[in-house]
Structure formats: C-alpha cells, structure tokens
Amino acid sequence: MSFSSFETFFKSLNPFPVLGKHISKESYIPLDLSIHNTELQTVDVSSSSDLETYIWQYIKTQNARVAYGGYLEQRGIYQRSDYFNASQTEQNQQEERNIHLGIDLWIKAGSPIYAPLRGEIHSFKNNTNYGDYGPTIILKHHIEGKTFYTLYGHLSLDSIEDLKVGVEVKQGEQIATLGKAEVNGDYPPHLHFQIIKDIQNNAGDYPGVSSAKDLEFYKENCPDANWLLRL
Fold first, then answer.
1. How far apart are CA 93 and CA 76, in angstroms?
2. Which residues pair with 147 in a beta bridge?
3. Model-level pTM?
4. Which residues contact 223 (CB under 8 A, 6 or more apart)?
5. 8 A C-beta contact, residue 155 and residue 179
6. So where are the chain's domains?
7. How does pLDDT run across 130-179, given as a tens digit for each residue?
8. Which CATH class is domain 3-229?
C-alpha cells in the first residue's frame, strides 16, 4: 500500500484516545524538545529529574494536562546513552541516531493507557538498556484487510505482567499504565506511541529513533502517529 493510501486509510478510522476520553483535547499542548529549542540550552537534558522539572513547569504555565510532540524531531537527549550512539570516532554525524520516530505524550506516572483500535497482543518486553523504552507493549491490528502495529513504550512493570501473546484487545480497553523514571529507561514519565507498518520480525521492541542515513526508510515504515492521536 502506498504512503498516501495508508494515510487515507488511517484518517478514515475512529480511534479511541490513547490517554482516555476524560482528558479533553484542549488539555494538550505541543512541546518542542528538539535541538532547535533554545530554552533547553539551560536544561541538563541528560538528567531525567531536570528534564521533568522543565516539562512539568511548561505544562503548568500553559494550563495544560499533557504535553505532546516529537515526530521526526532531532533531539540532543540521546547523546547521553551509548545505546543510541557509539563514540564519534566510530561513526559520523549521518549515522548518529537522534531523530524521533514516534509521538511522546508527557503525563504523570501511573496514567492509564488505552488501545486506540481493536487488535491483539503481538509482543511485550522490558527493554532495560539505559535510555531505552523500559517495559513495552506492541499491538497487532488487522483492520479492513490491512495489518499494522502500534508500539507503547515507557510503561510500568505491572503493565507487562501476566500478558500473553495473541490475546485479543478491544478498542478502548486499558492495556497499561505509565512507568516512573526508575523503570522507563530513565526519562520523565511519558508514553512513546508509534505506528509501524512492517515489524520486521521484531518482538517487544522496534527502533524509536533513527539516524539521518536511515530516515527515509523509517519515515515510510513509521508514519506520523498523529494520524491516530488526532492532536
């Protein structure tokens, strides 16, 4: 299916809000965490607590409940982790993984996460590398003859207990809660939400950050998650 027809298909769906219907769309505010945000020059983005203070202050001053954004955003935060980048002597700038492929929803730990569409548990895993997803769930969706996947990262440990692959998930069903920095890869609490067309034999994990070199492939395989979030 072509990129344009895939977009048309997604926009024809009626997804359930991933954070629930109890949060109005007026309560969401866009957040720029790119290298182009000059405000971040005074924030130690390698510190989850410092970054959390910045994000929550931003949400408060905007009279919002949720901050969101990040699709194809080039970020400096990933430089803190060897999981994303080897030393600069081993790779050039084109190979540095720093372009975000999902949309982040920044909200307090323990917040419930809901399935936007019907599907089934494809896989789950606790991705424990520093700066990684932490507990992660991937749903498989087969709708109107089309198969695709959605990924939910930075969850609580409870979210992946007693899960079973293949179990049906109903649209609007709660599937998880958000984790704290201690378990979510050392980030301020948030959901990483990503659409994936071809899962490429991955299970419980899929790249959420790309290098410039690989970006064209990932832009095609991981389209804008806002096609479902509608923010």
1. 13
2. 142
3. 0.92
4. 3, 6, 7, 10, 195, 197
5. yes
6. 3-229
7. 889 999 999 999 999 999 999 999 999 999 999 999 999 999 999 999 99
8. mainly beta
